[in-house]
From TrEMBL:
Its EC number is 6.1.1.17. Its cofactor is Zn(2+). GO terms for cellular component: cytosol. It catalyses: tRNA(Glu) + L-glutamate + ATP = L-glutamyl-tRNA(Glu) + AMP + diphosphate. This is Glutamate--tRNA ligase. Its main location: cytoplasm. It comes from the Bacteria. InterPro entries: aa-tRNA-synth_I_codon-bd_sub2, aa_tRNA-synth_I_cd-bd_sf, Glu-tRNA-ligase_bac/mito, Glu/Gln-tRNA-synth, Glu/Gln-tRNA-synth_Ib_cat-dom, GluQ/Sye, Rossmann-like_a/b/a_fold. It is found in: Cytoplasm. Monomer. The gene is gltX. It comes from Sulfurovum lithotrophicum.
């Protein structure tokens, strides 16, 4: 069983999408369930609507899930499990105030003041409405975990403090909620960022104290670096999936790109369903990968070229295979939907007759409006030259601007077959 566990506290990060893709692929390969768990226990940071946005993004990538739930739905379960640990003597009530802990000589570690507080104290604290937290007693044995990339790691018992599992407002800490939900859902394979590696020993210890005996395989993915080789941050354009969409990158290309780095693939161009057939999570490089926007542009162009012509035209408001073919003529100079859209719009938008070639464009516009339909560009061009008396660049330049809205681009002889049925609309 695998899961993807995002928090609705901001736009989905590109790195999070990569994690979702890998979890989905492995779940499909293992023919096991894939769960989406919205980690919304941090109420102050949650942003309304971000949970829905996360699911919509997954849908765009055709990443289907077997079930989805919000972590807050399990609040009662988390509280019950925390109380159970308290009753079993594995946890204890702590009434230390944050101020008291901060004034301690070792504020980063719990001072042990409440170790011997009787669990019956809980009833008194509740009745008097006094604030308290529940802490899990620190481990006596070392904690051993195995990661596909890091290998076996041992966390000495004395490095793990008596940490909080239930806050003063009776909500679970992130580590406790995650460990409980992984246990309850039967998650036995966890793929996530190496940024969470430091949390893993605590979560394993929590599950052990709760009596969970099933082994969990971990794969802590190396982080994605920006083009300068630094950890990606909000200041980097490609930090979020939203930015990639806004720039005109399509899901197939984005998924292709996120799977490719650090991987050995039979081909550079592939779709997510194709990757499921050969992807091997264990052979992924354990080194950080650098985000290369030029590589993504190349892949985006390749995937746009593979789109059915009529479907491609729909991205620009048409339902005409010829417009899709027209867009593909511009692939040498454009790599995103936005860039192609700008070129298609330039063709079908009103032209500027106040520029350098405005006078000649007016002449050609009138002739085109009165001309019959010509099957070939050669016949069309010959007719215009004869009727206008224009030649050389005084003919070719204004004609190109009139038909495409730009002075440069693909050959007009290549463009003409796809716009000839729109000439009256184009040449105006």
């Amino acid at each position: 069983m695998l899961r993807f566990a995002p928090s609705p506290t901001g736009d989905m990060r590109t790195e999070q999408l990569r994690i979702a893709i890998f979890n989905y692929i492995v779940a499909k390969q293992k023919e096991t369930n894939f769960i989406v768990r919205i980690e919304d226990t941090d109420k102050e940071r949650n942003i309304t609507g971000k949970d829905t946005e996360i699911l919509q993004i997954l849908e765009k990538f055709a990443i289907t899930h077997d079930s989805v739930f919000h972590q807050s739905e399990h609040l009662n379960i988390h509280q019950t499990l925390a109380i159970r640990l308290l009753e079993e003597g594995k946890a204890f009530v702590c009434t230390c105030t944050p101020e008291a802990l901060e004034s301690d000589k070792t504020p980063s570690r719990y001072n042990g003041k409440c170790f011997d507080v009787d669990k019956e104290e809980l009833k008194r604290l509740k009745s008097q409405k006094l604030p308290f937290v529940i802490r899990l007693k620190k481990p006596e044995d070392d904690i051993v975990i195995y990661d596909l990339y890091k290998g076996e790691s041992i966390t000495p018992a004395d490095e793990v403090d008596s940490f909080v599992i239930l806050r003063a407002d009776a909500t679970p800490t992130e580590n406790f909620a995650s460990a409980c939900d992984d246990m309850l859902s039967g998650i036995d394979f966890i793929i996530r960022s190496e940024e969470h590696l430091h949390e893993t020993p605590k979560q394993e210890y929590i599950k052990k104290q709760l009596g969970y005996k099933e082994e969990t395989t971990y794969a802590h993915l190396p982080i994605i670096l920006n083009e300068e080789g630094q950890k990606m941050s909000e200041s980097d354009n490609a930090f979020t999936v939203k930015w990639l969409f806004e720039e005109g990158y399509i899901p197939d290309a984005i998924a292709n790109y996120l799977i490719l780095p650090g991987n050995t693939t039979p081909t550079d161009i592939f779709t997510l369903p194709e990757a499921i057939k050969w992807f091997d999570i264990s052979k992924l490089s354990g080194s950080p990968v650098k985000f290369d926007i030029e590589e993504l542009r190349l892949l985006n162009r390749k995937h746009l070229e593979r789109i059915d012509d009529k479907r491609l035209s729909s991205l620009f408001g048409f339902a005409d295979a010829d417009i899709g073919k027209l867009a593909k003529l511009y692939m040498k100079e454009a790599a995103t939907i936005n860039e192609l859209d700008a070129r298609i719009k330039a063709i079908f938008s009103p032209k500027d007759f106040d520029g350098k070639w405005g006078e000649q464009m007016r002449i050609l516009e009138k002739i085109i409006a009165e001309a019959p339909m010509f099957a070939t560009f050669e016949a069309f061009e010959s007719h215009l030259m004869k009727e206008s008396g224009l030649s050389g660049e005084h003919f070719s330049k204004p004609l190109r601007v009139l038909l495409t809205g730009a002075e440069q681009g693909p050959e007009l002889s290549d463009i003409y077959p796809y716009i000839k049925s729109y000439l009256l609309e184009v040449a105006s």
